[in-house]
Automatic annotation (TrEMBL):
Name of the molecule in the record: Putative secreted protein
Length: 365
């Protein structure tokens, strides 16, 4: 195949309707990047616009990240650099961060927000660390009946997690010296204006659900995690889930192999790619349904619906979970198998070198 040196090259592909008569669901297009120097890391869809996150491998072995805005059949770079992470799509805004290598202070992080409607990139105001650290110390002292002062904090990693109602909490990891200054204690938790949660062990993930319920995934032991769900400052459920023989330790990828939908959790078995539905009963999550449905990738859309893409005879079939069944939605004649879904009308399927856009009732040529 002829290389295009990283430039976007759109080509028409076919998208076939499956078991649907009420709407014609058509293709958008696909793009290829230079396989030798540029790789697609991820894609993020917002209605008719998308962010393509690419990794560019330079001659000095440094990996530069490039964020491109794709609209119609045109694209433009919105920012490039190093160490971009923590992408969060909230309403019409995409939040993400970058470690500032030019600042010698430990864990110095810049935060950005891209407004899809205005197509504008801005810096996010820095966290008031002194105020947050004081609140964190107060919460830790209450939790463990200690008397730490703010001066015991040797290092602190503070990460904002955003909700759809324009609020945010702080997911924190702090290292404290003990009273004899002989060792460090690592403590993780979540701080919000109306509550705080200090974990017994490590917190693996913090996110808001579509109804602004805060979900905290906390490591419990070698095979178990605990899911704490908080709404309006109150814990509404707390249950453990045993992932032995289902998922390796510390391999949770939220909304990919571990999808929280209200009181249910959908987990992809790493041994066979099949998805299991867990429902909380008392203080434990138990298997309610084994779908006997394997797929290459899963995703959760903006409304909390679960989607999957599955290879079949050289094509990819896109499914949506409706009720208790995965229903065919699209068939694409490509072998790409990474899924990014905004809603029923706006989907991207990609791999490390190409992507295909699915947009209902539109064709990008």
């Amino acid at each position: 195949m002829k290389k295009n040196k990283g430039k976007i090259s759109l080509k028409l592909m076919s998208l076939l309707q499956i078991n649907r008569s009420e709407n014609i669901k058509e293709i958008a297009g696909s793009s290829t990047v230079d396989e030798e120097t540029v790789k697609i890391k991820d894609t993020i869809v917002f209605r008719k616009k998308s962010i393509i996150i690419k990794e560019k491998y330079n001659f000095d072995n440094k990996i530069e990240t490039v964020l491109e805005l794709l609209k119609g059949n045109e694209s433009k770079v919105i920012i490039s650099g190093y160490e971009f992470a923590d992408f969060q799509l909230v309403n019409d805004k995409l939040y993400f961060s970058r470690i500032n290598k030019e600042n010698l202070m430990e864990n110095s992080v810049e935060e950005f927000v891209f407004n899809f409607e205005e197509e504008k990139l801005d810096h996010v105001e820095e966290i008031n660390e002194e105020k947050i650290k004081k609140a964190i110390i107060d919460a830790i002292n209450i939790k463990f009946a200690e008397s730490y002062s703010i001066y015991r904090i040797r290092s602190a990693k503070l990460k904002r997690v955003y909700s759809r109602d324009d609020k945010c909490c702080i997911w924190f990891t702090v290292k404290l010296t003990d009273k004899n200054i002989r060792k460090e204690n690592k403590i993780t938790g979540v701080y919000c204006d109306d509550f705080s949660y200090v974990a017994e062990k490590d917190i693996l993930n913090v996110s808001y659900d579509v109804d602004n319920t805060l979900n905290i995934i906390e490591s419990k032991n070698e095979y178990e995690e605990e899911i704490i769900r908080i709404r309006e400052g109150n814990i509404i459920s707390k249950g453990s889930i045993n992932l032995k023989n289902v998922m390796p330790k510390n391999k949770i990828e939220l909304n990919k192999n571990f999808i929280i939908v209200s009181e249910s959790i959908y987990v992809v078995n790493y041994l066979n790619g099949k998805i299991l539905k867990y429902t909380i009963k008392g203080n434990k999550y138990e298997v309610e349904k084994n779908y006997n449905f394997a797929a290459e990738d899963f995703d959760k859309d903006i409304d909390g619906n679960i989607w999957a893409v599955k290879s079949f005879c050289g094509e990819n079939i896109v499914y949506k979970l409706e009720g208790d069944q995965f229903i065919h939605q699209y068939r694409v004649n490509s072998d790409r198998c990474l899924l990014s879904v905004y809603d029923d009308k706006n989907i991207i399927i990609s791999d490390r070198s190409e992507y295909s856009l699915i947009s209902k009732n539109s064709i990008i040529a």
